[in-house]
Amino acid sequence: MKALLYVFFFCFSCFLFASSPTNQQLIELSQSAQWKALLHYRSSSLFGAESEVDDVSFFLHPEGKTSLYKELEGTIRAFQATPDLACQFPARYHWLSQQLDWNVEQLNQCAELQKWLTQLNPHSMSLIFPSFYMNSPSSMFGHLFLRIDPEHDNNKLLSFSVNFGANINENDSSIAYTVNGLAGGYPGVLNVMPYYEKVKEYNDIESRDMWEYKLALDEQEVLFVMLHIWELKDRYFDYYFVDENCAYRIVSLIEVAKPELALTEPFASAAIPSEVIKELEAKQLFSKSEYRPSIVTVLNAYYGQLTETEQHWLQRLMQTTDELNHPDFLQLSESSRARVMDALTQYLRFQLTQIEENESAAKQAHQVMIARSKLKTTASLNPEVSDGIPVLEGHDAFLLELGTFHLDDEHFADVTFRPAYHSLTDPGHGYQAGAQIKFSEISLYYDDDWKLKNFQLLNILSLAPVTVFTSPISWEVDIRRHRIMSSKASEALYSQLGFQAGASLGAPDNQFFLLTGLSLTGHKSYEHSASSQITATMGWLGSWENSEWLIDFRSYRDVNTEAFDWDRLRLESSYHLYRNHALSVLLSRQRFNGQYSSEWRLSYRYFM
């Protein structure tokens, strides 16, 4: 009996694996773009070539993480020894079956895999981009994930999504979260979940607009990506905010379907979602796009369609829906009352997303629905809104700026490099108004030799105006080492860590802001390690046609000594020549420790 089983297994194996590759075939296959994409290999001059997957269970050879050839050889041997292993690594098996004339029908015997594919029903895929979210370090640049669409996707909310994110410790502090995220201290995992859950999270709770880009992949390419997701769904990568993040990992999944395009190559050092979208658009990987506005975007659009009288009544009804029976409200036309109640319903829906089990909002919403149902008019507000921030039209992330500045009676040349991302006076088209993120920006000036003017490790500034519906906090985090040039001979380099918070008023493109906070400043001449200052910033930010304008006044007052007292009034403006080209003008007047100086600066900004 045992002999018969051996004979059966031998014949079955021969049927599955019709040919064995030669050594030359193994070498060629192991160096193919498809095999590298399946193993997520990255070549690095510092560490050599190795897989980005950090879960050892992903490899079928002990040296598979660092050897493409050995992992291929080990994979083939493992499949031949244990044919059922194809159910754990279906994408590898599917590809090898095409290269080596194996029996691809073996995958039809994988019951769990087939059940999963039947449930998800993959026919096409879309790349989803929720917009910038300044209140989370990992989402300041936006986010990317995939949506899996069935053949008849009449209701996209019922589709499934594939998301890559850090598996964080909920007890970690914000500092620990940031440090671990930058250093790869969290495992990153793929999760498959209903799309409506992601819409609720981003569109409703976090009030983020979303863009849906349908990928130009055929059904077989979509299926192949799904088989690879199955291989990865219980395994992890080390997660890094800057490079191996959501954007990079999602691109690496798409690359499995299109390995010849080398989609991950441009993002080896940093992966910013908006830049990924531009790259995929340039590679013609989008067949169409759709915009899904957030609940607050729709609410603001509704508010803008109301007359002043209707806006007045909406604000009154937001306080109490008892005003629905007020005689003056009942004197309004039926269509006017309908418009107010429709806007109010949207507001109450927003309230329900912000507070779990909000019984008050639920009762008021029910009351409004009953009152609205009694009106015969069908006149209402237009639910259509503009396409929001045109991400594809925004400037590129890397900045090279060449300038000249005049300080009192001296002229200097300077140059600035910034890997990412956007300042308040950069061309605002395609970016969230009032949001600034500057990362690793370095400025040098020439004075007989090149000297450091400013090194901005990180600056995050979020100016979100208070509205009728929301009261966001405006804030700034600033970490830098800079030279306060009060004269040509100034050699004062200071290291600063500052935080400010406050409020903004007005429209996003025409707002006034006031922030206050604290700053710690270090300098080699200080007797103690650092001095501390109370800080305040007030200013105006505006946009006009093809230009951005910023006027601000900053004040630093040393708490215990007079080692660092600094006031600066600044006017800065930029004019957009083209998408990636701008001219900038800066005028400033400052007082530093009792010494006054004036500066003007003209520069050319090139984004790439």
Average pLDDT reading: 89
For the largest sheet, list the strands in their spatial order. Answer: 10-11-13-14-15-16-17-18-19-20-21-22
* Shape verdict: globular
Give helix % range: 25-40%
Number of domains: 4
Biggest β-sheet strands, sense, barrel: 12 strands, antiparallel, barrel
Low-confidence stretches: 1-15
Determine Rg (CA atoms, Å): 29 Å
Q: What does this 3D model show about the protein?
A:
The protein is of the alpha+beta class and 608 residues long. The protein folds into four domains: 2-106, no CATH class; 119-292, no CATH class; 300-373, no CATH class; 394-607, monomeric porin ompg (Porin), CATH 2.40.160.40. It is built from 16 helices and 22 strands. The chain has helices at residues 2-16, 23-30, 33-39, 68-81, 90-100, 111-120, 174-183, 195-205, 219-232, 246-257, 273-282, 295-305, 308-319, 327-330, 334-354, 359-373; strands at residues 41-44, 48-51, 124-130, 145-149, 160-166, 186-194, 210-215, 236-239, 286-292, 399-407, 410-418, 420-422, 435-446, 450-462, 474-483, 493-507, 510-522, 531-544, 547-558, 566-578, 581-592, 595-607. The strands form three sheets. The protein has a twelve-stranded antiparallel beta barrel with strand order 10-11-13-14-15-16-17-18-19-20-21-22. Strand 13 and strand 14 form a beta hairpin. Helix 9 packs across helix 10, helix 12 (295-305) packs antiparallel against helix 15 and helix 15 (334-354) packs antiparallel against helix 16 (359-373). The longest helix has 21 residues, at 334-354.
